[in-house]
Design brief:
Blueprint: E1 33-39, H1 41-53, E2 56-64, E3 70-77, E4 84-90, H2 92-104, E5 107-117, E6 120-129, E7 136-142, H3 144-156, E8 159-169, E9 172-181, E10 188-194, H4 196-208, E11 211-221, E12 224-233, E13 240-246, H5 248-260, E14 263-273, E15 276-285, H6 295-308, E16 313-320, E17 323-331, E18 345-347, H7 351-365, H8 390-394, H9 416-419, H10 437-451, H11 455-464, E19 473-474, E20 488-490, E21 497-499, H12 510-513, E22 515-518, H13 519-530, H14 537-543, E23 558-562, E24 565-574, E25 577-584, E26 589-595, H15 605-615
Antiparallel strand pairs: 1-3, 2-3, 4-6, 5-6, 7-9, 8-9, 10-12, 11-12, 13-15, 14-15, 16-17, 16-26, 18-22, 19-22, 20-21, 23-24, 24-25, 25-26
Length: 616
């Protein structure tokens, strides 16, 4: 039977003023963190190496043994450079040696694991440099009575438990634990061998007394599932949450829910209930996003919009003064009912045009192209009647036609020039201004000709990688992408959604409508623009100033004013997506809304304006 932990919300006013708990390894400051589950040994090692190189350190490792070992890992940014050590494949003798060696070298154990693989028992541990000289202890293979006696002995010496594990050896139940000297007055409790119902009762009881869950363990003994846990009395009044018996999708949904609300995962437990894999997790507040004064009003504006213009999934991110202050998802991103969140990957639709404009000005800044030159200067294979400049195309003033309804929807093109075969021999139009996605395909052809690199590589090299935008890329549905949204349309009845069976191939219009990314990454791009990281203020002004009065459209961006405040924005609509990105440069506001259901992005302007007005 599934049991859900309740989660507590406490007063927050003193949270960030209180000192860190060094003995519990819990910094008071907001810290970047990552976590992974169900990793093979090779994937685990790869993640560990990658994030160690980026200045992270492990805070919790969970190892599930058997014929196919699997790892779970939590790592946190290590700004002080505290030394640490981690080993996960030690036999009993080697583990003892590591304990002695690291103790001698001034480290203390903060987490330990044991598991069986290939008929042999292995041990793992995370050690941390004991910079404050705290006393600590670690014991393994204790019977229940021995653990109880050790707990009482160490408690009398001022040591509190920070890790508890349970397992069977030769058919007998055994416990291990790690203790550390308490440096502040705290109350704690340990409970072991609890049934699911008993655990729920203890959880509620300690919650009422002001305790929070610190560590959990689930184990099976004589065909019954049991739980062990450590509670601490948290006087710093931080919000926290804990859940257990979660399936993979359920854990995913909790994880993204808490990430978007500013929590960090501090403990993860992987275990089996019968033949099913289950997870438990503990989250603790990591920043002050939950207390942003406009949170409820933003939620109300978005929910009003979504009720009037339904979407299967929707994500919103708001940034102010260079900082993300709000991020949340509504609905689901996939048919498996995985929840939408700020990291869900959506089609950008015509926001791709805005990014193509940014890329062009960035390439010009790097001396790779001159946007005022003719497009044929960089792609001479174009027919001679294409006399427009790259700037003309970016401003939709290149007189290139728009769609005619005959565009291919499944053919793949390897370059922008090859994709231009769809329209390049057609005559130019007479309109001084004509919105044209095809014009942006020629923009990409010019970029490719100027640099010798394809458009998708340029997006990655000049925009995605330098700004840490891991989800920004050209869409290629031939390859699976983690957290990519399923594409939907509203059913003809108006009730419910229908998934798109065969999404169109977007390679014929990458620059004008073929990119994908998460709302969070697009907000980060907006911040990078607003703070001058990508382009200077003068370059931003040039990019967002319309060349004439024929349209309020600059170089990839719609421009205008709202209640006297200048903004530049881009909206997009296409199969399985709608989106908007709006930036108020003088107010340092960035707002992103993205959905995985076709609809009118124009209607997204209403909640976007309401959100901005709150910040005005």
């Amino acid at each position: 039977m599934k049991r859900w932990f309740q989660w507590s919300i406490y007063a927050f006013c003193l949270t960030w003023a209180m000192p860190a708990w060094a003995d519990l390894d819990e910094p008071k400051e907001s810290r970047s963190w990552v976590s992974f589950r169900n990793l093979s040994p090779a994937s685990y090692q790869s993640k560990l190496d990658t994030y160690t190189a980026q200045g992270f350190r492990p805070v919790d490792v969970e190892i599930k043994g058997g014929t196919r070992p699997r790892y779970a890992l939590i790592m946190r940014k290590n700004p002080t450079g505290t030394k640490w050590a981690l080993h996960t494949t030690l036999n009993n003798k080697d583990f003892k040696k590591k304990l002695a060696r690291y103790r001698k070298d001034g480290y203390r154990l903060i987490d330990q694991e044991t598991y069986r693989r290939g008929g042999k028992r292995y041990y793992g541990g995370v050690w941390l440099k004991n910079t404050t000289g705290l006393k600590w202890a670690s014991y393994r293979h204790m019977s229940s009575d021995a653990y109880h006696d050790m707990y009482r002995t160490l408690k009398s010496q001022g040591l509190m438990p920070i890790d508890v594990d349970a397992y069977t050896m030769n058919g007998k139940l055994r416990f291990s634990g790690v203790w550390v000297q308490q440096s502040e007055a705290k109350d704690w409790a340990v409970r072991r061998h609890l049934s699911s119902d008993a655990f729920s009762a203890e959880f509620k009881s300690y919650q009422k007394k002001g305790y929070r869950l610190y560590d959990t363990e689930s184990y099976r003994f004589k065909k019954r599932q049991y739980f062990a846990a450590i509670w601490v009395k948290d006087k710093r009044a931080r919000r926290w949450a804990a859940y257990r018996n979660l399936s993979d999708d359920e854990f995913h949904n909790k994880w993204v829910h808490f990430v978007d609300r500013g929590y960090r995962l501090v403990d993860v437990e992987t275990y089996s209930v019968g033949t099913k894999k289950r997870y438990a997790g503990i989250w603790i507040q990591n920043n002050d996003m939950l207390d942003w004064q406009h949170r409820k009003s933003v939620q109300k504006s978005v929910e009003t919009y979504r009720k009037a213009y339904p979407s299967a999934g929707l994500s919103v991110v708001v940034a102010h003064r260079g900082k993300v202050v709000f991020r949340q998802g509504w609905g689901h991103q996939t048919r498996r009912k995985k929840d939408a969140h700020s990291g869900t990957v959506y089609r950008l639709a015509s926001i791709s045009k805005a990014l193509s404009g940014v890329l062009g000005f960035r390439l010009q800044k790097k001396g790779k192209i001159s946007l005022s030159k003719t497009t044929r200067s960089y792609e001479s294979r174009l027919p001679r009647h294409h006399s427009h400049t790259v700037l003309d195309l970016l401003a939709n003033r290149g007189r290139v036609r728009h769609y005619d309804g005959k565009e291919p929807d499944h053919k793949r093109y390897s370059s922008a020039y090859k994709a231009s075969a769809i329209f390049r021999n057609d005559p130019l139009v007479n309109d001084a201004y004509l919105y044209s996605t095809h014009g942006y395909t020629l923009v990409a052809a010019a970029y490719e000709g100027a640099t010798g690199k394809n458009f998708c590589t340029l997006i990655r090299t000049y925009l995605a990688d330098p700004n840490g935008l891991k989800t920004l890329r050209c869409e290629n549905r031939k390859y699976a992408v983690r957290e990519r949204a399923t594409l939907y349309s509203v059913k003809s009845s108006g009730a419910g959604f229908r998934s798109v069976k065969r999404p169109e191939n977007l390679s014929w219009k990458y620059a004008g409508g073929g990119l994908e990314a998460s709302a969070y990454d697009i907000a980060k791009l907006g911040i990078a623009l607003d703070t001058g990281k990508i382009l200077s203020r003068a370059e931003i002004t040039a990019m967002t100033t319309a060349p004439d009065r024929s349209a309020a459209y600059a170089y990839g961006w719609d421009v205008g004013t709202h209640k006297g405040r200048a903004y530049y924005e881009k909206r997009g609509d296409q199969e399985g997506g709608r989106s908007i990105l709006r930036i108020y440069p003088d107010e340092d506001i960035v707002i992103v809304m993205m959905a995985n259901t076709r609809g009118s992005s124009r209607k997204m302007r209403t909640p976007t304006r309401k959100i901005a007005e709150r910040l005005f």
